[in-house]
Design goal:
Elements: H1 6-19, H2 27-30, H3 35-52, H4 58-95
């Protein structure tokens, strides 16, 4: 016969305690709040998040805007040049007929 030690008894009692189902709270606590309350909670959360935003200064905004516009112009020119080079090649290939 094997004797149970104090530790094994504690472990088995803890397991039994964990297995016990917890009593559920009332239905009202489990249900969602109405749509208006949820919207108010959402608006409050948005307000809190907006206070955490680090807004750029006017100089930073101007500098970043210039960078974006220059990048758009650069890639626009690159795409125009590639398109202008590929279009005539496609016209040449379309005129070729296998004999």
């Amino acid at each position: 016969m094997v004797k149970k030690t104090d530790q094994s008894i504690e472990k088995s009692s803890k397991k039994r305690e964990q297995k016990k189902p917890e009593k559920k709270a009332s239905k009202k606590a489990d249900s969602k709040p109405n749509i208006f309350r949820r919207f108010v909670n959402y608006a409050k959360a948005v307000k809190v998040e907006l206070t955490r935003v680090v807004w750029p200064t006017r100089a930073e905004l101007l500098r970043m805007s210039i960078i974006v516009v220059c990048t758009l112009l650069f890639f626009g020119v690159v795409i125009f040049l590639v398109d202008s080079g590929v279009t005539p090649l496609l016209h040449l290939f379309s005129q070729l007929r296998p004999e």
